[in-house]
Each structure stands twice: as structure tokens, then as C-alpha cells.
Amino acid sequence: MYQKLALYINGQFIEAEGRTTQEVVNPSNKEVLGHLPHATNDDLELALVSAERAFVSWKKSSPTERSTILRKVAQLTRDRAALIARNMTLDQGKPLAESMGELISCADHADWHAEECRRIYGRVIAPRNENVRQFVLREPIGVCVAFTPWNFPYNQAIRKVAAAIGAGCTLVLKGPEDSPSAVMAIAQMFHDAGLPPGVLNLVWGDPPKISDYLIRSPISRKVSFTGSVPVGKQLASLAGAHMKRVSMELGGHSPVIVFDDADVERAAKMLAKFKIRNAGQVCVSPTRFYVQKKAYDKFLSVFTDTLSNIKVGDGLDEGVEMGPLAHERRIPAMERFVDDARSRGGKVLLGGDAVAGKGFFFPPTVITDLPDDAMLMTQEPFGPVAPIVSFDNIDEVIARANSLPFGLSSYVFTNSLQIATRVSNDLEAGMVNINHFGSALPETPFGGIKDSGIGSEGGSETFDGYLVTKFVTQI
Ligand code: NAD
């Protein structure tokens, strides 16, 4: 049985009941899994008003109370992981093992926020006059509106929900219509964990219409979005026009730099496996590969060989390592990148053409000999396509890596301490991974700079976007 789909407003699950609905499709075989109700404007208003009403008492809840609910959600996530993971593979396409991994890491996110929300502190500032007391209080910002994407449906949502609720905020969340089951499951778990009505509200519908309504409303005080750079800029400018705080976790185009002195074989094997994770539909996926000249041939051969042995198929099938793309529109998106590469003289060493059949399958693809201004080298492919080029020296490669407007993640392979220090200082990125992949843990900050976003999720920074600072002075 696939997940029941509904709106969740003021503690009530509301089914279609005459509302417009949208088909949810399995990307492995195009079968219709369910019908998702779209929120009307009245539903959106009710969600906002419910969140506003709930904020009056939720902002006064003790951190222990918030922590208890987040802990219960962590436990429920573990208890229900097998079912939620199966549904996520059905509507998103990723292999079951990846869905399970996402669920288990999300239970950690909920637990970590449960601990950390008990450590939201203010401070006391020494006065100039001994009779004065000066305090800095950190208070929840108010009603938040959040928009989460389809690539990590559970993970992207729980980070925002746990941070908002842990900080004492209430929220209206719009989940991903293409892959809704995991976010539905989140609403059900908070409901079962005893979250008061109105603290979390979940809506679905036409993304631009919903975001426009929720951001313009005088009730909302903060906007959090994960998705593409163009949409992020649009939502941030609307939020700016209404003087609302934003957190933006946007796309990147993560450079990978492999130096001659690295363990090239290890790097190539690790990167090939990382590249096809979630069929490359990962904001921190390694997407531009720069390999130093002496290491280039070996890297290319091991990387291509590893990718050519990846089992692609329905994520529920045993041994499948890469599923389909999450929806139909991603296939022409991949084809545009490959067509541009071919027209720019690129050599397609592996893959390159969509797989015929029922699902939205695109194979692992390796392309070389591209100029730096090819589409693949300048725009995030968000799919299983890897462009690989060579470089001569460190100054050149840092300049090439920093040449784009994005700055999310970056990956460097070297055995030199000097090189490691230099790249971690000079790469313009929110995250620098040296010789391994270590981002996205609950206790570490995750976020981008430049066009890749504003603010961090996770780490002790996680509540910053959901709190306002109040200064109190008394005599
Ligand atoms: P898209 O830009 O149409 O949508 C991206 C996400 O934003 C979707 O979840 C969508 O529902 C949402 N969205 C779109 N317009 C919106 C609006 N006006 N208001 C609120 N939400 C809105 O592209 P797509 O084909 O769905 O996804 C591909 C692109 O999205 C990729 O190139 C990638 O850059 C980006 N993306 C990034 C992440 C991430 O984790 N940063 C996740 C998913 C998608």
C-alpha cells in the first residue's frame, strides 16, 4: 500500500474532497501511485492562521517539551523506516538501500535537533552602570513558510521542520508534489508524537502560486527554500520586498580536484560511486572533474570502468545501484547537456543517451575534452553525467574552480598537507571535502555561499535563521 495523501492543517488530515488533484507517478515504470490534493487559497489561509494561533503558545513551550517531541519523531522514524523508505523509492526512484540510509540519517537529525534546541542561549552584557542589567534574548521569529524539493524528500524537509519547531516557531510547509510520501509521513509522525495542532501544517499545489501566497501574507515572518538557484532568487526577492528573513539552500556545481600526488585509484572509485548516488540528483554531487595531467589517464580509466559496472534499474530490485531520474522532465534536461557537449567537441566515453523503456532512465555518462565554457562545465547537470578535464597547476585549477557564480560543495584529493591547506583556504565554497565525503551530518553546518545560498542547516548554526535577537536593559 502506497502512502495516503492529504493536506495537514491545524492537526487535521484533509483529503481531496472535491479539490484539484495531481497524479503521483512511479518514475521506474510510470504507474500512477496516488492522487495528491492541491490546497485552495482558503486552505492556505487556514494553514497560516492556524500557525499564527499555535505560535502564541508554542513560542512559550519549554525546550524540554520541544525536545521530547523531536525525540519521539526520531524514534518513530526508525520504527517506520522500512515502510517510508519503500514508498520513497516508489515515488522518487532511488534504490531502496539509499532510501533506508536517508531515513536513518534523518532520525539522527531529529535527535540532534532535540538535543541542540535545549542549548539556545542568550547572553548577559556587562553594564557601564552597576545598577543596570543588560540581556540579549533569542526568541523564535514566528510563522515560517518552507518549500522542500523532491531529491531527498525526507531529509530536506526534516532539517527545516526540526529547526523551526526546535526553535519555537510554527510553520507551513509545501513539500515536493512529485515525491510526496516521505513528507506526508513526517506530518503523520509529528501528529502521532503529540505536536499541538497548527504548529506544523503541510500543503501541496502549484509551487509558484503557493509560494507567492504564503510569502506575501503578513502572517509569515521567514522563508526557507531548498531548490534551484533561479527559483531561490525569485523567492528571496519576494521575501525581501516584504522584509522577511530567508534561508536559501540552492544548487551548486561542485568542483572535484584530483592532484597528481593523490591515491588516484581510490579517488576514482569513490567518486564514481558518489556521482551516481540518487542518479546524480544531489545538490552536492561532484559535477565538474579537474584531474592533474599525470593522474588524468589512470583516473579516467578507473572512473569509467567503475561506472560501466553500475547496475541501473528499478530501485526496489535487488542489487540495483542507480534508479531512474525522478521525473520525465529530467531526461530532456540531460539530453540538452549531452547535445551541447557533443556540439562543443566533447567525447562521450560512456552512456550519453536515454535508456529506452517505460521508466525515466538515463545511464551513467562520462564526457571529456570539453572547453570550460561548455554547458556541462558551467551549469549544474543534476543527473548522472560527469564531465572530466585536465589541469596543470594549483593556481590555474583554483581559478577555474572559483570561476562560476556558485559556491556550495567542493572535493579535493591530495596527499600533500600544503595543497590541502591552500585549497581549503582558497576555494570559494560553503563546504570543502578533502580525501573523503563528510558533509551533511546533523552536527555539521550545511550550506552554500555566492549564488548557492544564504544560511546553514545543521550544526550549531541550525537555529540562527529561526531566531530573532532582542536586547533588554533594565535598572
Ligand atoms: P525547478 O527549478 O522547477 O524546481 C526545483 C524545486 O523548486 C522543486 O521542488 C519545485 O517544486 C520547486 N519550485 C519551483 N518553482 C517554485 C516556486 N515558484 N515556489 C516554490 N517552489 C518552487 O526544477 P526541477 O526540474 O524540479 O529540478 C531541477 C533543478 O532544481 C536542478 O537543476 C537543481 O538545481 C534544482 N534542485 C536543487 C535541489 C537542492 O537540493 N538544492 C533539489 C532539487 C532540485
CATH domain topology of the largest domain? Aldehyde Dehydrogenase, Chain A, domain 1
User: What is the mean pLDDT?
Assistant: 98
Annotation field: number of helices: 13
The CATH superfamily title of the largest domain: Aldehyde Dehydrogenase, Chain A, domain 1
Structural description of this entry:
- The chain has 475 residues and is an alpha/beta fold.
- It folds into two domains: 268 residues, Aldehyde Dehydrogenase, Chain A, domain 1, CATH 3.40.605; 188 residues, Aldehyde Dehydrogenase, Chain A, domain 2.
- It has 13 helices and 22 strands.
- The strands form six sheets. A seven-stranded mixed beta sheet has the order 14-15-16-13-12-18-19, sandwiched between helices. It has a six-stranded mixed beta sheet with strand order 9-8-7-10-11-21, with helices on both faces. It has a three-stranded antiparallel beta sheet with strand order 5-6-22, with no helix packed on it.
- Helix 2 runs antiparallel to helix 3.
- The N and C termini lie far apart (64 Å).
- The structure holds nicotinamide-adenine-dinucleotide.
Blueprint of the fold:
Blueprint: E1 7-9, E2 12-14, E3 21-25, E4 32-37, H1 41-58, H2 63-92, H3 96-116, E5 123-125, E6 133-140, E7 143-147, H4 153-167, E8 170-174, H5 181-192, E9 200-203, H6 207-216, E10 220-226, H7 229-241, E11 245-249, E12 254-258, H8 264-275, E13 286-292, H9 293-308, H10 330-343, E14 347-350, E15 365-368, H11 375-378, E16 385-391, H12 394-401, E17 406-407, E18 409-413, H13 417-426, E19 431-434, E20 449-450, E21 453-454, E22 467-474
Helix pairs in contact: 2-3, 2-4, 2-5, 3-4, 4-5, 8-9
The structure holds nicotinamide-adenine-dinucleotide (NAD).
